């Protein structure tokens, strides 16, 4: 930020130095035995004569007078860096929140950060073990969510010991603010897999599993991008205006995330009703009888994500002033963000989708994204194959014949 500010400032002062005439009107007494001051206005307009070959041309140069101006007329409303810390940081880099170089509004707890690093680390390891045991590759999304949460709190533990370091704090905040997106995406993917596995017609309304996963994961990514932009702008090193704008963008991002959760719930409830119907008809046998824990786990996970989103919306909408208890007490963040997110991930350890959704019915149709990506490579491959057909292909030229009259070709 400082480097951005200093360049225009430097330019402005350079221009000012060049533009300001030498202080001739009032020489500083006693400092300079200055030569007689050059008058800014010439007493009489000088007439200059230029001799050319044929005639004489005389020019009357107009008198030029430059109004003396001061540097203050060039001063822009740039925020001046008035940071003069009066308290030197302690061993952990802590300064009281009223100091201009304070990054924390409270004394952050090292123990709490370590505790949650361990808690999320346990979820991370458990998810890895379960994914391996159930051979459920699709849980990589929630595994990544747990990894990001764990990384966020490890970085926070480092940050509490180096509180003047904005880099570490920015990394911490980005991990903690963005990892719920991954947990949310996983919830969307699980319902898609449930529709594919439990519902005989493999669709709810217009939503086939692949379309549902594609649409909601795409919307989730869109809100992720908005949150990333906002979170990136609202770094602790940003100035107040940028920070405010970043916070507003981030709030817009989590707001639409919550809106998509609401839309998604409509589909989840449709699915729920269909499951009731199938249960009444006695069409859910074996593993498929275990649909309830999975669906309730989905509701619980979304509920915890919602609690966390509402907390962040309230926290950020209250601003950063002294009357906002949420930014001035550390426990709010742990109780309303860390704990709910831990629960939103842990519920999928307790009820693991890989334990129920397995077997031939669990195979997902190729996703739309994969189709799109594959189309590109398929075309390339097809083009290559077409180029490979040699000239002397014995079947060449019989494309118009009915199949049974064509020559056998290795290329068909
Ligand atoms: C912040 O911490 C990181 C990692 O400990 C270090 O590499 C970096 O130099 C630090 N930055 C400042 C400005 O102290």
Write a structural description:
There is one protein chain. The protein has 412 residues and is an all-alpha fold. It has eleven helices and two strands; from the N terminus they run αββαααααααααα. Strands 1-2 form a two-stranded antiparallel sheet. Strand 1 (47-51) and strand 2 form a beta hairpin. The two termini are 63 Å apart. Mean pLDDT is 78; it is low at 1-43, 69-80, 389-399 and 406-412. Bound molecules: 2-acetamido-2-deoxy-beta-D-glucopyranose. 2-acetamido-2-deoxy-beta-D-glucopyranose is lined by residues 162, 165, 167-168.
Mind sketching the topology for me?
Blueprint (H helix, E strand, L loop, with lengths): L1 H18 L27 E5 L4 E5 L49 H25 L5 H21 L5 H33 L10 H25 L6 H41 L10 H27 L7 H4 L1 H21 L2 H4 L11 H21 L24
Antiparallel strand pairs: 1-2
Helix pairs in contact: 2-3, 2-9, 3-4, 3-9, 4-5, 4-6, 4-7, 5-6, 6-7, 7-9
Bound molecules: 2-acetamido-2-deoxy-beta-D-glucopyranose.
Summarize the structure.
By secondary structure, the protein is mostly helical. Helices cover 58% and strands 2% of the residues.
- The overall strand count is 2
Low-confidence stretches: 1-43, 69-80, 389-399, 406-412
Task: Summarize the main sheet.
Answer: 2 strands, antiparallel
Which shape, going by the Cα principal axes? Answer: globular
Question: Taking all residues together, what is the mean pLDDT?
Answer: 78
- Give me the side-by-side strand order of the main sheet: 1-2
Task: Determine the number of helices (DSSP H or I, runs of at least 4 residues).
Answer: 11
Instruction: Tell me which ligands are bound.
Output: 2-acetamido-2-deoxy-beta-D-glucopyranose
- The chain-level structural class is mainly alpha
Strand content bin: under 5%
For the CA atoms, what is the radius of gyration?
35 Å
Q: Percentage of helical residues?
A: 55-70%
Order of helices and strands: HEEHHHHHHHHHH
Termini Cα gap: 63 Å
